[in-house]
Amino acid sequence: MTFHAVLRASLTRAILVAALALSTLGAFAQTSERALLPGSAVVGQIDAANPAQVYTYTATSGDSISVGVTAEAGLALTLTLTDAAGNLLATATDTNSVGAVSVLNVTPADGLTYITVFPAAGLGTQTTGGFRIILETGGTDTTTAPAATPESPAATPETPVQPVTNVEYSVGSLLTSVGLQVSLSWASTADLNLELRDPTGQRLFFDNTSNTNGGTFGFDVNGLCEVLTGTNPTETATYAAGAIPTGYYEILVYYRQDCQNN
Asked: How far apart are CA 211 and CA 232, in angstroms?
């Protein structure tokens, strides 16, 4: 039997389904996992629905990368590079509101590098608009590379830049500094079970304690009534700091049995 919002312990198997929507708040920035290719400029858009844009680059040993961004007139941007664990590799801000910002000669570790673009707080005359971003390898100076593209937004601010439409989007990821944790606590020796399903369909529960998205599951408390804990029993599913899937997380709670009456 499945139901929403109310967990009734008298049922032999009850499921609580909740939608956990992740948003771009605090230290979070949302991404659709758009991979940058060296030398290929990509057009992006900052607006109310997309207050930050995140791109990725898969680095290999010895890579040196430079990233440059040009924006519409009045839009001052901050550019940051982080690794897959959320560690800051480089950052730069268009403090003079010249419509261009870049980071040069960054040497990332092997694997994904996240490139985030968002409005610089308190700078510029607007917080929305279009931009172009380009990544180069081998230490290329990207400061003027996007501006050299014909009809760049900096050269024609009167023509709004439209978002890229020829990029295939997959399930996105959220770059976090604290990760995600869901815990189930109860006040008896009953055998309850927590299950967490992420937006890609991967599960975390007592019989599947890890997944390929970086999720882990803790101890099966009061499992099969073998080792009983009556003082604040808690089961926890966790995604570590770094990139986690965006979308809706399904939280399920199963009531299995009352261990005191066995």
From this structure: 27
The pLDDT value given to residue 173: 66
* Per-chain mean pLDDT for the chain: 75
* Residues sharing a CB contact under 8 Å with residue 195, sequence separation 6 or more, in sequence order: 203, 204, 205, 237, 251, 252, 253, 254
Of the candidates 215, 193, 197, the one whose C-alpha atom is nearest the C-alpha of residue 206 is 193
CA 250 to chain centroid: 17
Q: Would you give the end-to-end CA distance of the chain in angstroms?
A: 23
| Residue 59 identity | A
List, for residues 99-146, the tens digit of each pLDDT value: 899 999 999 988 889 899 999 888 888 889 999 999 998 744 444 433
Q: Secondary structure of 58-90 in the HEC alphabet?
A: EECCCCCEEEEEEECCCECEEEEEEECCCCEEE
Question: Is the distance from CB of 133 to CB of 42 less than 8 angstroms?
Answer: yes
Please name the helix (run of DSSP H) or strand (run of DSSP E) that holds residue 36, with its range, or none.
Answer: none
Report how far Cα 140 is from the mean position of its chain's Cα atoms: 28
DSSP 96: T
Query: Residue 81: how many CB atoms within 10 A of its CB?
Result: 21
DSSP 3-state percent helix, strand, coil across the chain (nearest 5):
5, 45, 50
Spatial CA neighbour of 78 closest among 52, 117, 46, 106? 117
Gap between the Cα atoms of 72 and 74, Å rounded: 6
Q: What is the spatial distance between Cα 258 and Cα 192, in angstroms, rounded to a whole number?
A: 9
